[in-house]
Amino acid sequence: MTPYFAVIFTSKLNQAAEGYAEMATKMEQLAKEQPGYLGIESARGSALGITISYWSSELAIKDWKNQLDHQLAQQLGRERWYQQYQVRVAKVEREYSFSARDHI
Amino acid sequence: MTPYFAVIFTSKLNQAAEGYAEMATKMEQLAKEQPGYLGIESARGSALGITISYWSSELAIKDWKNQLDHQLAQQLGRERWYQQYQVRVAKVEREYSFSARDHI
């Protein structure tokens, strides 16, 4: 499976972020149609939101960044929704997982 | 700044996770004292929690993984708190950020 690539997107929203959730959902659906898309994980706490998308190659990440609807969403995000954000592109080198045998 | 390393930890908690928040806070404080620690970001939504810690080297990550109190916390986590988790070690190759000029 490894290596593959992760885009770590951490963000703080403005207090008024009308339309953000709908756009986030739409972008997630679009990302899934992109070549090289492997998956997405997302969590938003009271202060910080983290979305990590996984991709098969750096080229796949570049293509998604430049996808036209996504470009427009990024621009709207900077104008309307995000107080700040940080993007990190990382190469996933190894991974392991745990699953409880006895779920409560 | 780049390259540096990220440990992406995604988890689902058991419904009863008494003592988890206290341990998470304690481990975050301990991590900050480790050599090579660069930072931590965390968000927990209703379904998924994501914690990303940043490190200067793979050795720093290995040392933190093997730190004794952290080992015990990991064991407790598997026994008590986590329904499942996944750990990914990734090399951060590039990054960029945005900050709104006019905060609301």
Distance N to C terminus of chain A? 30 Å
CA gyration radius of chain A, whole angstroms? 15 Å
The largest chain-to-chain contact, stated as pair and per-chain residue counts, equals: A-B, 38 and 38 residues
Mean pLDDT of chain A: 94
Oligomer: homodimer
The total count of helices of chain A amounts to: 3
Shape of chain A: globular
Strand fraction of chain A equals: 35-45%
Helix content of chain A: 25-40%
Largest sheet of chain A: 4 strands, antiparallel
Strand order of the largest sheet of chain A: 2-3-1-4
Low-pLDDT residue spans of chain A:
none
What class would the helix/strand composition of chain A place it in? alpha+beta
Kindly summarize this structure in a few lines.
2 copies of one chain form a homodimer. By secondary structure, the first copy, chain A, is of the alpha+beta class. Chain A is built from 3 helices and 4 strands; from the N terminus they run βαββααβ.
Detailed description of the structure:
- Two copies of one chain form a homodimer.
- Chain A has three helices and four strands; from the N terminus they run βαββααβ.
- By secondary structure, chain A is an alpha+beta fold.
- In chain A, helix 1 runs antiparallel to helix 3.
- Chain A is globular, with a radius of gyration of 15 Å.
